[in-house]
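Regression check, magnesium ion case 223:
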Amino acid sequence: MSNLLLKLHEVTKSFKGLDAPVLRNINLEILNGDNVAITGVSGTGKSTLLHIMAGLEKPDDGYLEINSTKVDYSNQAKLSQIRNNYYGFIYQFHHLLPDFSAIENVLMPLVIRTNKENGFYNKGLKLLSDLGLENRINHLPHELSGGERQRVAIARALITDPSIILADEPTGNLDYKNANMVFDMFLEFATHLKTAIILVTHAEDHAKKMKKIYRLSEGKITS
Ligand SMILES: Nc1ncnc2c1ncn2[C@@H]1O[C@H](COP(=O)(O)OP(=O)(O)OP(=O)(O)O)[C@@H](O)[C@H]1O
Ligand SMILES: [Mg+2]
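Current build output:
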């Protein structure tokens, strides 16, 4: 199996109303177990870059390869399937489903992937317990603290054993102490599972814990 998980080739993206393209001829390769931070000031296109890597947004020019196969945006069903098999997502705001308990939220990606509801409970329970949430599994998101919600979101991202986790400011809405605690847990788990991480962050000390740091500015990436 190739070591290359994901490749962007000469990717360009513009939005209406902006003078210059947000991304200009971006080339980027993500390898197995890679550990990459993307930093840059607000509005430089970090989230846009992440969405393109996930196949959620189509570049104007250039292409995305996942597992050495060029992404075909006309086949959304296949793209969703690839996304579900390959990626885990963590956002700044947890995006947990409000009417489902912590464990149900964690198991949801597996239920979607396999169309089965049973057989995964112990896996979800183990992940939540390892993240220190064994007494919170049946709580609804609104009954959890901000840090606990983000830990549930981390468990949900890891439950499918993804090759890559895309994390957009995963601790951005937490206080400093909680943010460090949750981030360190996330890093430890992802490293243990050999999951590649692409982390968008404003937190320099989190970026420094990654193997590579890329800076996005004026549509270009520098390392
Ligand atoms: N769907 C869209 N339509 C029009 N403009 C957009 C769209 N998405 C993003 N933009 C614009 O593209 C630029 C980059 O946005 P993006 O969200 O990628 O920045 P960012 O680096 O993630 O910023 P932040 O750090 O604030 O999250 C911004 O100027 C934004 O307004
Ligand atoms: Mg953003």
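Comparison notes: The longest strand covers residues 4-13. The pocket of adenosine-5'-triphosphate (ligand 1) is lined by residues 15, 18, 22, 40, 42-48 (CB under 6 Å). No diff flagged against the previous build.
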